[in-house]
Design brief:
CATH class: Alpha Beta
Largest sheet: 9 strands, parallel
Number of strands: 9
GO biological process, one term: biotin biosynthetic process
EC number: 2.8.1.6
Oligomer: single chain
Protein name: Biotin synthase
InterPro entries: Aldolase_TIM, BATS_dom, Biotin_synth/BioAB, Biotin_synthase, Elp3/MiaA/NifB-like_rSAM, rSAM, rSAM_sf
Family: Belongs to the radical SAM superfamily. Biotin synthase family.
Distance between the termini: 34 Å
CATH architecture: Alpha-Beta Barrel
Length: about 325
C-alpha cells in the first residue's frame, strides 16, 4: 500500500487522514522505504532547490503567554536573556551577515503576543524598509497577532511572508498554552492569507503529543493553504514545564517529515529548531526524506551550527541551485 499511496500523491491526488495513519503505523523495517518515497515526491514537485532562511530574535523574553515549551515566557524561570527591541541598524547588520552566509529569507521575530507599542512597530517598519533597500533578502516577520492597520503597513513595506505557527493539533493545544486559543492562531493565519500574504505556519514535535496530533496539524495547515511549513523538534529548556520531556528519536523525526511530505507535496517543508540536537549525524538524511528547507544560523534563544556546514551538506547531496 505504501507504493500505492506514493503513486497517488505523484498523480496529484490527496491522501486521507486514514491513509496518513497507515504510514504512521508502518513497521520500522520499512522506514527507509517511506523516506525514499517522500524524497521521490519532493523531487517531482519541488526539485533540488533547498529553501534557506534565517531569523533574528529582535525582542527577547518577558512574554505574557504561557506556552509550556518556551524559554521566553515570563511564567517560567529559565535564565533566558531579555532585552527590548533591537535598534534598526543592528537588525540590518544581522540581515547583511546572514545574506553573506547564504540565506535567502530573513525573518524578524519578537517575543510576546504582539508588538504592543506603536513606536516599536514603526521602528520595525523602518528596519524592514532598510533590509529591502540594502539587501536582496526576502523579508519575513513573526510579530504575533496583527490588526488590519498593521498588516497593511507590513504589506506596503514589502513584507512577503509572515510566520505564525499553530504548534500542534487543536485537540492537544490546551496542554501547551492557556493564555490564548487555537482558534486565535488559526484566525490570524486566515487573516493574513485573506490579505494576500504568504504564511509560514507549522509546529513543534516532542511536546508530548501523539503521532495523530502531528497528522492533524499537517492536515490543518493543508486546509489553510499555508506556503511554508516549519517542523521544529523540542529542545527542552530547563525551567519550562517540558524540561524533562524525552527527546524525539532521530528516525521518528525523519518519519514525521516524510509523512508531512505525503500530505503537503507542493509546499516548502522546513526543518528548523532542534535539528542539531535531535538529529545529530542524520541531518543530511532529512533532505532525502521530504524536507526542502532549512533554518540556518542561530535560533531564538539557542545556537545553531555553522552555516558553512549546512551549505556543504547541501552541496554534498547534490542539492541546491
Amino acid at each position: 500500500m505504501l507504493q500505492e499511496l506514493k503513486n497517488k500523491v505523484l498523480a496529484s491526488e490527496d491522501i486521507t487522514k486514514e491513509e496518513a495513519m497507515y504510514l504512521v503505523n508502518l513497521d520500522e523495517s520499512r522506514t527507509m522505504e517511506l523516506l525514499a518515497a517522500a524524497n521521490e515526491i519532493k523531487n517531482k514537485f519541488i526539485g533540488k532547490k533547498v529553501d534557506l532562511c534565517s531569523i533574528v530574535n529582535a525582542k527577547s523574553g518577558s512574554c505574557s503567554e504561557d506556552c509550556t515549551f518556551c524559554s521566553q515566557s515570563a511564567h517560567y524561570n529559565t535564565g533566558t536573556v531579555t532585552y527590548p527591541l533591537m535598534a534598526k541598524e543592528d537588525i540590518l547588520a544581522r540581515a547583511k551577515e546572514m545574506e553573506g552566509s547564504g540565506a535567502e529569507h530573513f525573518g524578524i521575530v519578537t517575543s510576546g503576543r504582539g508588538v504592543v507599542s506603536d513606536e516599536d512597530f514603526e521602528n520595525l517598519i523602518e528596519a524592514f524598509r532598510l533590509i529591502r533597500e540594502e539587501t536582496s533578502l526576502e523579508v519575513c516577520a513573526s510579530l504575533g497577532t496583527l490588526d488590519e492597520k498593521r498588516a497593511e503597513k507590513l504589506a506596503n513595506v514589502g513584507l512577503k511572508r509572515y510566520n505564525h505557527n499553530l504548534e500542534t493539533s487543536e485537540s492537544y493545544y490546551a496542554e501547551i498554552c492557556t493564555t490564548h486559543t487555537y482558534a486565535d492562531r488559526v484566525n490570524t493565519v486566515k487573516f493574513l492569507k485573506e490579505r494576500g500574504m504568504e504564511v509560514c505556519s507549522g509546529g513543534i514535535i516532542g511536546l508530548g503529543e501523539s503521532f495523530e496530533d502531528r497528522i492533524d496539524l499537517a492536515f490543518t495547515v493543508k486546509e489553510l493553504d499555508v506556503d511554508s511549513v516549519p517542523i521544529n523538534i523540542l529542545n527542552p529548556v530547563e525551567g519550562t514545564p517540558l524540561d524533562s520531556n524525552d527527546p524525539v528519536p532521530p528516525m521518528e523525526t525523519l518519519k514525521t517529515a516524510a509523512i508531512f511530505r505525503f500530505i503537503l507535496p507542493t509546499k516548502v517543508i522546513k526543518l528548523c529548531g532542534g535539528r542539531e540536537t535531535n538529529l545529530r549525524d542524520l541531518q543530511s538524511l532529512s533532505l532525502l526524506s521530504g524536507i526542502n528547507g532549512l533554518l540556518i544560523g542561530n535560533y531564538l534563544t539557542t545556537e545553531g551550527r555553522a552555516t558553512a556546514e549546512d551549505l556543504q551538506m547541501i552541496k554534498d547531496l547534490g542539492l541546491g541551485e
